[in-house]
Amino acid sequence: MSSTAREATITVFGVAVLLNYPWEMAQSVLYAPMGSAAEASWRCFLASLGDAAMILVVFSVGWAIYRDATWFRRRSAGRLAYTIGIGVLFGLLVELWGLADGRWQYGESMPRVPILEIGVVPLVQMPILAPLTFWATARWMKVRTPHVPKPRR
What we know:
Elements lengths: L2 H25 L9 H30 L10 H25 L18 H25 L9
């Protein structure tokens, strides 16, 4: 793995955790109680690590598709659609799994998608925060390494 690829991977993960943890904390009031404030904070932190892992999957698949570890630095409608589409898919699957498995329950105030009965807030989390993660990572890498090398063929 090149140093640029390593930097991209580490930065994507770190930025993803930094963006997802506050989201998890903010939406926690829409779920059934999670115990003490410390327990809820810990659960939200663990969830943000899982969110970051999912964003690493989006990153890795993008790397394979575009054959470039910094694929997200070259913005396009197609790359944004890919990121949002995978984000919606992950959000849907994770919510369905978590509810079916009893890992979490929604509180009365959680807005829900009709028919599916999954939470709107967690469903939109990945399609919003994955592109934001890639944008912030690209900005960070631009400051650190302003030249974007052309991908190898």
